[in-house]
Amino acid sequence: MEKKNYKAMIEAILFTMGESVELEKIAEAIELDKKKTKALLKEMAEEWQEADRGISIMELDGAYQMCTCPEMYECLIRIAKQPKRRVLTDVLLETLSIIAYKQPVTKMEIEKIRGVSSDHAVNKLVEYHLVCELGRLDAPGRPLLFGTTEEFLRSFGVHSIEELPVLSPVQVEEFKQEAEEEMQVKLDI
């Protein structure tokens, strides 16, 4: 079979599935090895980007998905009239960052870091599909473990958790001092 037909098969798979598909499954479906399949996916993504198309291929932690280009958002708003743009408050962003960096993490661990109840924030993040339950901790009470989802990766434009920025020890120390100062102010009141 020609390369062009492989690309058509990949495009059909990604379009039809609508969600991310693991490289191994794509390779198996088109009867090519993973290395050649990955090269084709990369080539297709570059071709689509150069052609200034309204869709792109995004890699998400070893899986691939056909997505709408962010530049098309305004056009989609005019059609859909109700974009699904969720607002992440400071509380949600703080909780999400704790989950992203500490995953898998329990609500109790999140609350220990934040110093307040996090039930609402975690539930909202699950509702927004940015966070999901990963299982249960093997400890008394078997608390739920939470981690980020593919939607988190997609929303923040990263391919995997390893791409998240790393904080320097100096920044961590500054954040600790700020938190301690805030706690002291609250205690003084």
Largest sheet: 3 strands, antiparallel
SS element count, helices: 9
Q: Please identify the oligomeric state.
A: single chain
Order of helices and strands: HEHHEEHHHHEEHH
Q: What is the average of the pLDDT values?
A: 87
The N- to C-terminal Cα distance equals 74 Å
List the strand order in the largest sheet: 1-3-2
Low-confidence stretches: none
| Total number of beta strands | 5
Q: What percent of the residues sit in helical stretches (DSSP H or I)?
A: 55-70%
What structural category arises from helix and sheet content? alpha+beta
Q: Which helices and strands occur, and which strands form pairs?
A:
Elements: H1 3-17, E1 21-22, H2 23-30, H3 34-50, E2 55-60, E3 63-68, H4 73-80, H5 90-102, H6 107-114, H7 119-127, E4 131-136, E5 144-148, H8 150-156, H9 169-188
Helix pairs in contact: 2-3, 5-7
Question: What does this molecule look like?
Answer:
The protein has 189 residues and is α+β, with helices and mostly antiparallel strands. 56% of the residues lie in helices and 13% in strands. It has 9 helices and 5 strands; from the N terminus they run H-E-H-H-E-E-H-H-H-H-E-E-H-H. It has helices spanning 3-17, 23-30, 34-50, 73-80, 90-102, 107-114, 119-127, 150-156, 169-188; strands at 21-22, 55-60, 63-68, 131-136, 144-148. Strands 1-3-2 form a 3-stranded antiparallel beta sheet. Strand 2 and strand 3 (63-68) form a beta hairpin. It is elongated. The model has no long low-confidence stretch (mean pLDDT 87).
